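Q: Could you write out the predicted structure for this multi-component system? I'm mainly interested in how the pieces pack against one another.
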Amino acid sequence: MALAFDEFGRPFLILKEQDQKTRLRGLDAQKANIAAARAVARILRTSLGPKGMDKMLQSPDGDVTITNDGATILELMDVDNQIAKLLVELSRSQDYEIGDGTTGVVVMAGALLEEAEKLLERGIHPIRIAEGYEMASRIAVEHLERIAHKFEFGPTNIEPLVQTCMTTLSSKIVNRCKRSLAEISVKAVLAVADLERKDVNLDLIKVEGKVGGKLEDTELIYGIVVDKDMSHPQMPKRIEDAKIAILTCPFEPPKPKTKHKVDIDTVEKFQTLRQQEQKYFDDMDVGATLVICQWGFDDEANHLLMHRNLPAVRWVGGVELELIAIATGGRIVPRFQELTPEKLGKAGLVREKSFGTTKDRMLYIEHCANSRAVTIFIRGGNKMMIEETKRSIHDSLCVARNLICNNSIVYGGGSAEISCSLAVEAAADKYPGVEQYAIRAFADALDAIPMALAENSGLQPIETLSAENNPCCGIDCNDVGTNDMLEQNVFETLIGKRQQILLATQVVKMILKIDDFNAPAPMVI
Ligand code: ADP
């Protein structure tokens, strides 16, 4: 700070920019960063596993979300510390690539940082710790591949897939319906999967929800469900062997772009104008029995359509329109002139279904020419429940997709982590350098997952975490009576677990290497 005078002799203070910033260096920076990241991990720790707690988050505009999904909790948490944001990113990348294990990955990163802090206190250089962690993660991943199993399934034997999806769903709020939701997810994924090329396009699965009914009413529809109804109440509600025109142009006679004056002073002139307008619709008569339009249409058009017995649906969203085109094998037509019979989509049955006593109606397009697009239609007591079910179904769909792409599994309930921890611990002796401490610390950090699972289930962690060398031995969260996850049918995908270890290590290494932390001071008004 310096004192200076302006040309009128008035004093003013010059503040150096540096003074307005908080700046931490060296060990202080690392410790502050670790503390911030651990604070985030601590929040998620209690949500891990089948007995994990749920979090309730309120957005600034008052929307409430109740969830158990790590990625969603972090997304809505509004953190403004840069290091904490790295963990939010971490969870997001796990969600993006794998879709499941978003809580686990953050808990693991938190545990790695906790162990790193102890090593820093003992004077070990952060680069050494980072290198040790890197080596340990390689050992852990190799070990994972060794203990992984291949498991067989086919279009007729879907039970193993269902079991794995059930493990994912068992730690969610919707776990009372885990069996039926798992079956729905597996059937949906198989419907859109190309088993030979081991490829699944999840975009072909539409997840739609409507408040009402109960979770058990959730169903899989081999076709598309659109939250729209026919544009006129007197149009038919059920069309068999529908030929569908899919339009992205407004369904009304073209209007002049500039102002014109049309004088209609005789009945004849009026009739001519009407005939002109009607002719416009006659011209596009290519045999369609249903029109689906991205835009609206005016009352006149609606009336004409109704008189011609041509049911129509308006204001259908772009994504839905695309799915309808894929499912029915039709083409999206941007201009009336381009409409030809070959461009019409075909569906065995289109029906409008109403729900309860409300005016709510939805349109079901089923038995489509190309049955590869499906819809999961969720019912539930309130909007929050539907949203959470959507998130859980997303996880379960991702798990089924991952298994179809790569059918290796490891056992869940913390068993894979315990087994890797033992392997890393055993391998540590081979490294004579300081890294050995970091490798051992990595092994301890792996135990954090089973520990958290045990704590969250109200078990005594020390008693529960016995050092048996059985890769299936995990935490009996649901008190079934056995620790053997093979017997309990608790699986996780190998790629998911591997990704968790690799991503968590990467982020922790990144945080450890930061030794200068420069942030603007909070504004004081
Ligand atoms: P994530 O978002 O990381 O998937 P979850 O809250 O879904 O977190 O918890 C997943 C953890 O719970 C995994 O380690 C999984 O193995 C474990 N788990 C799930 N079901 C069971 C079960 N029935 N018994 C023991 N552990 C389970």
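A: Regarding packing and overall arrangement: The chain has three domains: 19-150+410-520, 152-222+371-406, 239-370.
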